[in-house]
Amino acid sequence: LSNLCTESEGYEISLLDPKHVEHLEVNINASILIKGCNTNQTIWSIDSQNNGIINLVQGDLTINNIEFQFTTIDIPVSYITPSNWFIYGGRQGYSTSLIVNECIFQSTSGLSRDSMIQIVVIDSKKVEISKSVFNGLNYYQPSSISMIFADNCSYVSVKKCKFQDAFIVTTQSAVELQTKVENGSV
Which InterPro entries does the UniProt entry name for this protein (predicted)? Predict the structure, then answer.
């Protein structure tokens, strides 16, 4: 993303390997498509202590065919990474939109002091999540990880998604969609 894009459609990034390990910050006013290119979703995780995998500060980001996973690191002490979210989008004063299609979001066991949410989007013009799966662990294994939080967005759409096996022990709802935007749509 550091190279200037000359295509009118924006950037298209194809993840060719079955696993991808990286923290990505998107802070460019452009359209960006990131897609897994395998039959199964490309697994995306990080292997160092970080708040999240993708931080969308500005731009229009589309994510397609990716499986997001938490990683537990035991050296020198045990911690879960990312520590807060897989995808965070939006910042007041910047223009952002997020489209997520055919992705899988995994949970992990354990309780956390912090609020952990798979997708967080705030102050964005558009959020569309479709044909994606949000996995909890099961009904007998608690987790501190909620699935979606969207607030103060002009348009939010969640279609044909599957939310399953969630036993969430936090004050956060599994899915929370709200807006204070005049003429907003959820």
Answer: Pectin_lyase_fold/virulence
Residue linked to tokens 């007998």: 140
Bridging pattern class, strands 79-81 and 71-73: antiparallel
Q: How many CA atoms lie within 13 A of 94 on its CB side?
A: 17
Distance of CA 102 to the CA centre of its chain: 12
* Region for residue 147 given its phi and psi (left: phi exceeds 0; alpha: psi -120 to 50; beta: otherwise): alpha
Amino acid at 142: P
pTM of the full predicted structure? 0.88
Q: Looking up tokens 């202590």, which residue turns up?
A: 49
Give 74-129 as a DSSP string.
Answer: -SSS-EEESSSEEEEE--TTS-EEEEEES-EE----B--SS-EEEEEEES-SEEEE
Please count the other Cβ atoms lying within 10 Å of the Cβ belonging to residue 174.
Answer: 18
DSSP bridge pairs for 97: 60, 126
**Backbone Cα Rg of the chain:** 16
**Nearest C-alpha neighbor of 2 from the set 22, 32, 41, 36:** 32
**Per-domain residue ranges of the chain:** 11-178
The kind and range of the H/E element at 140 are: none
